[in-house]
Design a protein that fits this description.
single chain; 237 residues; alpha+beta; Alpha-Beta Plaits; 2 domains; 6 helices; 8 strands; globular
């Protein structure tokens, strides 16, 4: 994908086939891209149709990257769209499929229907996490964004590393490298059902040991959009 490009996309039929077959499962390195689009008011249907056409371009170009597509279901950015790709080495990021053609197709099919509001590069932090760096394709995902006081990064990461043994289920932490206010971290956790989401609230959002280091925390719930994703393994409960 180019700097402004959307997630790799496919028609509903193509996406379903890719999901069922587990077409792509890259795990070459620690880097991820996470980006956000805001469909224009009243333009969601046209945006999704154009996004699907753009995914079909990626299929025809034999893109080997897997792309997740989510709609924000709960949060101040409700109905905005999040797309992401995970598990890349630095060299992989320098070798996206046909960048110029990708951008032309993107401008034709998607740009008229959206505002580009975020595009950031992250590094996966296995010492803080429980998982392999790529989230499972669950129906819902909790996205927690944490802004940390400048200079407190090492203490924040050390505190989370110390508590890693107590993690329950998949918990993936990433450090922002570029693309926004830093120091910033994001955490991804599957929330397959609303029951799982509500049960998770019995625990604090973050351990008390990091409270003094944090300046802002935002929690959003994302719904997976299989038809607006590309090359994912089969959805999991």
């Amino acid at each position: 994908m180019t700097h402004r490009c959307l997630a790799a996309l496919a028609t509903g039929v193509v996406a379903t086939v890719a999901l069922a077959s587990g077409a792509v499962a890259q795990e070459d390195g620690p880097y991820a891209r996470i980006a956000v689009l805001r469909p224009h008011d009243g333009d969601t249907v046209d945006f999704e149709a154009g996004y699907i056409r753009h995914l079909d371009w990626h299929r025809q170009a034999k893109d080997t990257w897997a792309w997740f597509g989510w709609t924000i279901w709960a949060g101040e950015r409700q109905r905005w769209f999040v797309y992401a790709t995970f598990g890349h080495a630095a060299a992989s990021l320098d070798n996206a499929v046909s960048p110029a053609e990708d951008e032309r197709d993107n401008i034709s099919n998607v740009t008229p229907h959206v505002e580009y509001v975020g595009n950031a590069l992250y590094e996966y932090l296995p010492a803080l996490s429980n998982g392999n760096g790529t989230p499972r394709a669950t129906a819902r995902l909790e996205l927690t964004t944490v802004d940390v006081a400048l200079g407190a990064e090492a203490r924040f990461e050390s505190a989370l590393t110390a508590g890693r043994s107590s993690l329950q289920g998949e918990t993936l932490w990433y450090r922002m490298i570029a693309g926004g206010s830093v120091p910033r971290y994001v955490r991804l956790q599957p929330r397959p059902t609303l029951v799982a989401l509500l049960d998770s609230r019995r625990e604090p959002v973050l351990p008390s040991s990091v409270n003094a280091l944090v300046t802002r925390v935002t929690v959003e719930i994302l719904n997976l959009r299989p038809a607006l994703s590309y090359g994912l393994p089969a959805s999991q409960p």
